[in-house]
Amino acid sequence: MTAVMTTDAVATAYDRWAPVYDLVFGPVFRQGRLAAIRAAEAVGPRILEVGVGTGISLPHYSQGSLITGVDLSDDMLEKARTRVRRQGLSNVQAIRVGDAEALDFATSSYDAVVAQYVVSAVPNPTRALDEFARVCRPGGEIIITTRVSADKGFRGGVEKALMPITSRLGFRTDFPFTLYTDWVATRDDVELVESRPIPPLGHFSLVRIAKKDAA
Ligand SMILES: C[S@@+](CC[C@H](N)C(=O)[O-])C[C@H]1O[C@@H](n2cnc3c(N)ncnc32)[C@H](O)[C@@H]1O
C-alpha cells in the first residue's frame, strides 16, 4: 500500500470535518468506540488515545482512567478541549497536538494505546504502529478500531476506486487487514491477540495487539 496522503493534507481535511464530525461520524462508530474503551480499561489506567479528534469517546472512559489525547488537527482538538471543559472530565490529563508517526512520549509510558478509526487516516500506518508499540509498556496493549477492506469482489473494487476521493477527505477505503498481520510479523515484541468484527456493516474490526512482557 502506498502512502497517498500527507500529514499536512490530513490535518487540513480534519480541520474541515471538525464542525460536522460528531454529527456525521458520531452514532455510526459508537459501538466500536465503547468496545475499544472497555478493552483498554481492562489493561490499565494510563491510556493514550491517538487521533482523539473531537474527543467524542472521552465521556465514555471511567473515572479511574488517566487519559491523554493527541491529534493532528487543531480544530478537532478545540472541540475536544471544549467537551472536556463543559463535561468536567477530570480523568482527561492532557489534550495536545501530536503526530501518530512521531509521538512525543517516553518509551513504555502507557498501559494501553487506543487508536479509533485513525490508522487508515495516517499517511504511514506502519510508522504509527511502531510508535504505538514504543510508548506501550511491556504487558500492555494497542487497541485499534479500524476499517478493513474487502480483498476482492465488488466491494473491493469499489473501495479501490474510491481511494482518490476518500484520501482527499482524510481516510482510506482500501485498507487490507494484512497491513496489521504483516507488521506484527516484522516484530518479535508484539502479538495479535484478538480481531473481531464491529458494526457498521462488517467493514470494521476491533484489533488488539499485545506488547509482550519483557523476558
Ligand atoms: C476518522 S477520525 C477519528 C476520530 C476519533 N478517534 C473517533 O473515534 O471518531 C481520524 C482522526 O485521526 C486524526 N489523525 C490522522 N492522522 C493522524 C496522525 N498522523 N497523528 C495524529 N492524529 C491523526 C485526524 O486528525 C482525525 O481527528
Automatic annotation (TrEMBL):
Molecular function terms, GO-annotated: S-adenosylmethionine-dependent methyltransferase activity
Gene3D superfamilies: Vaccinia Virus protein VP39
Record has Aminoacyl-tRNA synthetase as a keyword: no
GO-annotated biological processes: methylation
Pfam families: Methyltransf_11
The keyword Methyltransferase is assigned to this record: yes
Xref: SUPFAM superfamilies: S-adenosyl-L-methionine-dependent methyltransferases
Keywords: Methyltransferase, Transferase
Residue stretches making up the Methyltransferase type domain: 48-144
PANTHER family assigned: METHYLTRANSFERASE (PTHR42912), METHYLTRANSFERASE DOMAIN-CONTAINING PROTEIN (PTHR42912:SF80)
Protein name in UniProt: Phosphatidylethanolamine/phosphatidyl-N-methylethanolamine N-methyltransferase
